Amino acid sequence: MTPIVLAAGAALLWGTSDFCGGKGSRRASALAVGLWSQLAGIPVLGLALLVVSGTPRATDLAWGAATGVVGLVAIVLLYHGLSQGAMTVVSPVTAVTAAVVPLAAGLVLDGPLSGAALAGVVAAVVAIALVSAGQRGPHGPVTPALVGLALASGTLFGLAFVLLGQVGVDSGMWPLAGLRAGALVAGLSLAVGLKTDLRLSGEALAWTALAGPLEVVGTACYLLAVTQGHLSVVAVLAALYPASTVLLALGVDRERLRLPQAAGLAFAAAALVLVAR
Question: In angstroms, what CA-CA distances link 169 with 35, 53, 164, 220?
Fold first, then answer.
């Protein structure tokens, strides 16, 4: 039961962080927001390292660093795909792929699930697709290259879920230190290569300052969940993060609940009930 609660908490916190990061990205470069949010989360990470005991091993730090690099590239590809238009295609393809990859890996690494858990995982994948497909955004032609970009982004997100699941049970929060270092190195390299303006001010800075700590706590919840539970269940539940983003958009931005989103939220609730049995 505890891994399920932690995975749901990760989804809630990640979705909230994405909402804050999205608000900040409306006023500044998405890469700049991503990098500064990584820095903003460092104090919370330091506190987590003190509170949660663990053994810092080179292998766990390496798994974390690999997760950080892969995750950052996935985000850049996602943002690039969304900027090309057809968000109603890019978003659900990315989200579902990100859930299916760790699902398949978990079935291979951890073995088959019970009937109820498998039904819950399937419901979660459907929920991710529906919630993501209900998001508004720019529209444009759906080209094979755009679909390929979404598949690549989703595959990398899913791979990040799997990589972080390989750390030792007694590693504590140390893999997150490696993750933060890997993401910062990759992000700074991209920023230099793309000559990105990294300056933030005003509302962009405020939203970014919220996004970073929330992302760290969410990732900490996922790390604790995946070291205790089944990768196929934990990763797919954590991938439900678009649901909390949608709920915040409804409450804060006063967006209207669309039919696919409503159906997706219902499937998400069913998924949580089924996997908790």
Answer: 29, 11, 11, 13
| Cα-trace Rg, the chain | 17
SS3 category, 257: coil
Cβ pair 257, 250 in contact under 8 A: yes
Contact 184, 39 (CB under 8 A): yes
Q: Work out the widest C-alpha separation in the chain, in whole angstroms.
A: 51
Domain boundaries, the chain: 2-275
pLDDT tens-digit readout, 108-133: 888 888 888 888 888 888 888 888 77
SS3 168: coil
Place of tokens 């700074």: 188
**Segment 200-249, tens digit of pLDDT:** 888 889 999 999 999 999 999 999 999 999 998 899 999 888 888 778 87
